[in-house]
Fold:
Amino acid sequence: MFKHSCCADSRPSLPLHRLRIFATVVATSLAINSAHGWGGEHSRITAMAVEALPPVQRAVIAPEAAVMARVYCGFPDVNWACYGEWGGGNADPSLPRLPDLRREWEVSFYCGSDPALQKGKHYPHQAPQSLEAVAVHFGKTVEALQAGRLADGARFAGVMFHYIQDSGSFPHIMPIHRAFHVRNSDAIRIVGYEPQQLGNTPAEAAAALTARVRKLVDWTEQRLAPLLAEAGVSLDEAKRLTLNEQLPAAVTQAVAKLRAEKPADYEAAALACANECARACADALHTALAFAPRPWPPPAANRPDINLVFNPSFEIGDGDRVPEGWYIGWLDLRDRTGRAEWYRTGTHWDKPVRTGQRSALLLWTPPAGLEWRQTWRRAVPVNAGETYRAAVWVKARAATGSTWLALQFSDTAYEPVSVAKSAVVTTDCDWKKISVETVVPSNARWLRAILHTEANSGALWFDDVEIMRTRSIK
Structure:
């Protein structure tokens, strides 16, 4: 059931194919950024680590398992300031914009470093720095799980997994790292492996995990060293040469020779290392979950009649041009005109801000549209059968297209399942409230507000967003 206000047009929903754009973009971005190192193996190793858990622990992590394997374990590879910018990550003006994947998932928060603001501590993906990163993110995983924050715990665990996995794929010898792939990732399996608890306290476990990953690095070196020597370069020589040069010719040629002359042996070594990484990841997650509440608390209902939107009036900034908890959804990555700005009151007589000093602006938007969206970290957890009402104030000037508020429902894999849409604004207006009320679908777990406008040569300002639960579960 949908209820609309301020009706200029009352189409009830958005076609789902538009919402599938995000999933396609995420997969493309992760594929681009995983071209080196394990690549797609990250996802498979993560999935196998989860599969090795005892049934009770698998049930706890199940709501986040799919996206942990698909997205979270790739976080450190997409924590770059080029996301949301032109040039495909290479500043090439002929290439389209990269979707703002970093902000959508608040990747910098989970990685503990912000490349745009130059804040936090960045950890290289090789030992010994990667070992420190593993311990730090293990601690954050445990802290989140102990507090009952499953999504945060899974995201921190994804970062931890990435550093474990990269530690075992020769990032300190880049010619190997770039070519160390398991051609058939389905072969990565640790059937029958029983994960080990690494300690009785979080601090003890973090120290044991650091030692575990140090041994992983040594084990992978020993596994490949004989083959590398047969190709003409010893492991120690490969290490020495790559200290001062990322891709030394002698090591690059030895790896190429090994892959050409002994492909089965090279593949077997890569597979063995991937499986050992999976075992280490299984130990880490098993141990982190051992410190979680038992039984795991069921999802709680949101309190009714309070605004569940973080930063609803856009007053809080993230330090880098956008309001905290929001990001820009570029639906046409090749559009060169549309603009989304965190608007601030200035010296103008007419200040397009309803409350406070800020609003969210969309300007000159393409036919495909441009959006402000809530980040996943600030998405609202929901339960099937609950009723939610959402509203936003909008101001339109020189409007030519269509503007609306949408409520996007997504499942536990963060895939969109349905959308409820407000009335559509098609003409100029001063501050005008548009709203929508709808019932949570049976397969939905997350709710996000999306502020959308398309084919608009004018300007649209948004302020004071609200989402409220209005009725208990039936």
Remarks:
- Confidence is low (pLDDT under 50) at residues 1-35.
- The first strand starts at residue 3 and ends at 4.
- The CA atoms of residues 224 and 269 lie 6 Å apart.
